[in-house]
Amino acid sequence: MATPSRWAGVDGGAAESYQRQLVPAMFAPWAPVLADLAGLRPGEAVLDVACGTGVVARLAAEQVGATGRVVGLDLNAGMLAVARELPPVAGAPIDWREANALAMPLPDAAFDVVLCQQGLQQFGDYPAALREMRRVLRTPGRLAASVWGPLAANPGMAALVAALDRHVGVAAGRNRRAPFALADAGVLRELIEAAGFRDVAVRTVTVPARFPSPEQFVAAQLAATPLATLGAITEEARGAVASDVRAALRPYLDDDGLTLPMAAHLVLAHTS
């Protein structure tokens, strides 16, 4: 059986670190980009797949308003626990659901829009996840998704992967390569079309991620991603990884800290 998500085993402590360290730096800047792509309208029903701690779902709730409906779905109970503890936003109430994106316990044709920010590439079965997204969408309906582009266009992660390979091992490097599994825009388009979507548009956009320092970028990745499930990393290895990453990312450092370009494919697709 396919693994539902590479984030399935990430515990509550990592989820809290994710919300505190990675959401503001890496994921919050992309949320309005995805919402604008979807063109959310008041009164719409929205499903956020792989919602994590809810940065996209909250923005969707504000945009669809009190007459709309938002469901945030994630397999990771720790992520949802953090999401539920955050202050509510104005607009639609959010129904947080713990469920597998490969077999969503949701009725057919229940939503106007499905959103998925940096989730699709994490699933163990891309076609199954996309078929589920298509199933729960009305006609007309639309899918707005983002997935990371090529690793080479994401220099922070490229530096981290190289350092993990050298100082921690191939499993750790492979773990941080995994988010770039759908970097080929042509393959991504074919998968979405095969799931029954029409008028699939894919474009690549770069948005900066900002961290106080290279060391804090590394610390966040070690504490708040599936790397945390691989077991303890020695202090010596941590220091070596941070040193290598700082050296590789020197061109992206200034008085304000570390600013990393991050490239992602944005997908907009329709059911009719």
Largest beta-sheet details:
8 strands, mixed
How many DSSP H or I helices? Answer: 10
Beta strand count: 8
The chain-level mean pLDDT equals: 95
Q: What is the H-and-E element order?
A: HHEHEHEEHEHHHEHHEE
Q: Please identify the top-level CATH class.
A: Alpha Beta
Overall helicity: 40-55%
Which fold name is given in CATH as the topology? Rossmann fold
Oligomer: single chain
Helical/strand content category: alpha/beta
* CATH architectural category: 3-Layer(aba) Sandwich
N-to-C CA distance: 31 Å
Strand content: 15-25%
Structure characterization notes:
The structure is a single chain. The protein has 272 residues and is of the alpha/beta class. Helix 2 (31-38) packs across helix 3 (55-64) and helix 6 runs antiparallel to helix 10. The model has no long low-confidence stretch (mean pLDDT 95). The protein has 10 helices and 8 strands. Strands 1, 2, 3, 4, 5, 6, 7 and 8 form an 8-stranded mixed β-sheet that branches. Helices cover 40% and strands 24% of the residues. Strand 2 (69-74), helix 4 and strand 3 (94-98) form a beta-alpha-beta unit.
Supply the key terms.
single chain; 272 residues; alpha/beta; Rossmann fold; 10 helices; 8 strands; 40% helix; 24% strand; globular
Question: What's the SSE blueprint?
Answer:
Blueprint: H1 12-27, H2 31-38, E1 45-49, H3 55-64, E2 69-74, H4 77-85, E3 94-98, E4 111-117, H5 126-136, E5 137-148, H6 155-167, H7 170-177, H8 185-194, E6 198-211, H9 214-223, H10 235-248, E7 253-254, E8 257-270
Parallel strand pairs: 1-2, 1-4, 2-3, 4-5
Antiparallel strand pairs: 5-8, 6-8, 7-8
